[in-house]
Amino acid sequence: MLDLINAIRSRDPAKPTFCEVIFAYPGFHAVVFFHPVAAGLWKMELFALARLWAHIGRLFTGIEIHPQAQIGKNLFIDHGMGVVIGQTSVIGDDCTIYHGVTLGGKGNGAAGEKRHPTLGNNVVIGAYAQVLGPISIGNGARIGAGSIVTNDVEENSVAAGNPAKVIGAAASGPAPYGLL
Amino acid sequence: MLDLINAIRSRDPAKPTFCEVIFAYPGFHAVVFFHPVAAGLWKMELFALARLWAHIGRLFTGIEIHPQAQIGKNLFIDHGMGVVIGQTSVIGDDCTIYHGVTLGGKGNGAAGEKRHPTLGNNVVIGAYAQVLGPISIGNGARIGAGSIVTNDVEENSVAAGNPAKVIGAAASGPAPYGLL
Amino acid sequence: MLDLINAIRSRDPAKPTFCEVIFAYPGFHAVVFFHPVAAGLWKMELFALARLWAHIGRLFTGIEIHPQAQIGKNLFIDHGMGVVIGQTSVIGDDCTIYHGVTLGGKGNGAAGEKRHPTLGNNVVIGAYAQVLGPISIGNGARIGAGSIVTNDVEENSVAAGNPAKVIGAAASGPAPYGLL
User: Fold this and answer.
1) Which of B153, B154, B144 is nearest to B124 (CA)?
2) DSSP assignment of B111-173, as one string?
3) What distance in Å separates the CA atoms of residue B91 and residue B169, rounded to the nearest whole number?
4) Which of A55, A58, A110 shows the shortest C-beta gap to B13?
5) What is the pLDDT of residues C88-111, one digit of tens each?
6) Residue B115 to residue B104: CA distance in whole angstroms
7) Would you state the pLDDT for residue B168?
8) Which residue of A has its CA nearest to C53?
9) Residue A67 half-sphere exposure, CB side, CA atoms within 13 Å?
10) Residues of B in Cβ contact (< 8 Å) with A130
11) Which residues in B lie closer than 8 A to residue C126 (C-beta atoms)?
């Protein structure tokens, strides 16, 4: 939990204090409090209770995470309103996701099947980007705000647009365009 | 109400149980509980009360439906956060709408005038698609996630992009791209 | 406050009554009640309390406004769910912003630096448009729904698309496309 607070404090250019993160970061509440409990209930096969709890988490945070979604270390969901993370999503370590992002399915596939994306480590996904289907987003990739992504994105590349195309390499420093 | 629960259970690839739908589906709460009461108050010409009730529904579900909007049978609003359904919208039967979808106006028109879209039956609208103006979306049409639609879309066609273009025919089976 | 109610009643084609605005307009609650208190606490250097209050405002309205953001007269945030207004944003008078709009940064820049947009007067920003970086949107400009804007937009012009391009001049009367 302290790791995540430090991660948020270093990644958010607003440089929030410790207390600001604790009190006013819905992404922090979702990742530290609501999702772990929902995931635990799901593993105990209390499916309806797990989803009810996730639903309550959504009510307080605006962030909807399916109890079965797998989330790595230090996920920072910034702002968070409208985020939807689907059932078979897998998120690596140290990722940053902005408000309105969907890790979603494409409305088909069977219940047991992998229907949602897999994110590597250090991935950044801009506001309201829709990442759909059982695709892979490589380590260090960056997705521009408002992008519609339905194909794999390679490591350390930047994708943006509707539909999304690779528009460059993710280097350190400012983002090419559309990133939040 | 049982019809809608069954419709959700068959249309959602996550295959929720009966209890999961009852407890954890905000789109279910909006369509079965909040909107019918708001619509009833509106018909009784208790306009402010109707809108207050719709506002309370939005607080609990993240879904904003104007009390005067006309909604057909078995509308499934999945996830739901950020959905806005405008005053003169008409929605046919068996439609599926994802989170962030707007059935909106274009900021002009008189109060009595038709300003919002009309959806046929079996329409699917992907996440965060914006469908704007007094346009028609034909039966069985599918709109990709993040599309900006301001023209009519014909029956059984698929539209996507910003601005949206028809990109194919809606057959059974997997969606072309960008659909959630 | 009466000015804003009148502004909303004249700008919203749904022509709400006085009571409807008071009871059911989250954008009204955010601008008249939540943000001024948060801004006052921030000026008193009660930073964590200011952000907690802004966070509570977000819970009730779906609108997230950083306490330090500068907002002009008669801002009408319509629908409002998912709006994020960043720390160094400046908004002129008589602007209209729809739900899902971000006045955001690009994930870089130092805490003291200007990282967010400046809007002139009479600007209209359509639903889910993302306006990112320390850019200027000129007086009377209109931004289409779902646009991704990372460059300056000149006075009285209309920008739309992902990435956004200028597509015409903002005259009175109907919007070109994609405006909500």
Assistant:
1) B144
2) TTS--S-EE-SS-EE-TT-EEESS-EE-TT-EE-TT-EE-S-B-TTEEEETTTTEEEEE--SS
3) 21
4) A110
5) 999 999 999 999 999 999 877 776
6) 8
7) 86
8) A24
9) 24
10) 126-128, 145-146, 178, 180
11) 130
pLDDT score for C133: 95
Question: Which residues in chain A land under pLDDT 50?
Answer: 173-177
Inter-residue contact A148 to A164 (CB < 8 Å): yes
Q: What is the pLDDT of residues C142-170, one digit of tens each?
A: 999 999 999 999 999 999 999 999 998 87
Give the start-end residues of each E strand in chain A: 64-65, 70-71, 76-78, 84-85, 90-91, 96-98, 102-104, 118-119, 124-125, 130-132, 136-137, 142-143, 148-149, 157-160, 165-169
Global pTM value:
0.95
**How confident is the model at residue C177, as a pLDDT?**
44
Count helices and strands in chain C by DSSP H and E runs:
5, 15
DSSP 8-state code for residue B109:
S
Alpha-carbon distance of A117 to C161, in angstroms, equals 26
For residue B132, is it left (φ>0), alpha (ψ between -120 and 50) or beta?
beta
